[in-house]
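At this stage, I wrote out one protein's amino acid sequence and its backbone structure tokens, and that material follows here:
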Amino acid sequence: MKKESAAARSKTKLAGEVKAEVTALFEAALDYAQVAVPEERQFKALRSRILRSGNDCIRNLTSKLDQYNIDYKVVAEDLIIKKEN
């Protein structure tokens, strides 16, 4: 089995982070929309458009990642140190 390269792992990590951030954004937009549009039928139509737009955004951003060389820089918070007894 072929091991994934560091660049591929970096790209996968970034794609996951992009998805999480965009998802958080459209979830917040849905919360605000639910308050602004209390009528259920109108809210469902708006919700559908927001979700479609957010998912399209995620797909577009992750597809553009293939055009870049990505190298993740590890920060101290990412390091896990295992102590051997």
About this structure: Helices lie at 6-36, 40-64. Residues 30-74 form one domain.
